[in-house]
Amino acid sequence: MASSRQYYLGLAPDLLNPLHLAYEWFGVLWLEENHHFPVIVGYWFSKDRSEILQNAILSGFTTWKEKSDHFIIMNMYQAIRRKQSEQDWTGRSRLSIRTLFTSPWKETPPGLYIIKSRDVYPLHASAVCKKKFFVWLEHAAVCETEKDLQMFTKKVHDAYARDCSGGRSRN
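Now predict its structure.
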């Protein structure tokens, strides 16, 4: 039996672009094949609705049915944001060795620090661990409210307490 592929495009205004920390248009393109679960094939954020349509075309998609079901679009947006949050939490990386010799890290004692990207919400929050010879970006999050920042801080604290009590060593 031949496969029937159908692409759908959903658009919604005023959703948080986690990269630019701005509320913009969100567009998601997905595929449904033989009425199976939808597979997201692309998504975009933009200040203009028309730019999302252009991005979909530039990505090689020329035909789709537009869906305006807010529930479906929000479910896909939230699934994408959950996946990004998981990656932000688990994406540990060592910063350049030069970081140790630049301000503010040159003067900072070893320890775990929560850093905000700016003073207004939404913002990026990072948990940075300074060791004797290295600086590590341990965790990151997009925080839309003070409550989000407090939850991130608590989660970092709980993880750090477990790591230290578990005897895990990180240089």
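The longest strand covers residues 5-17.
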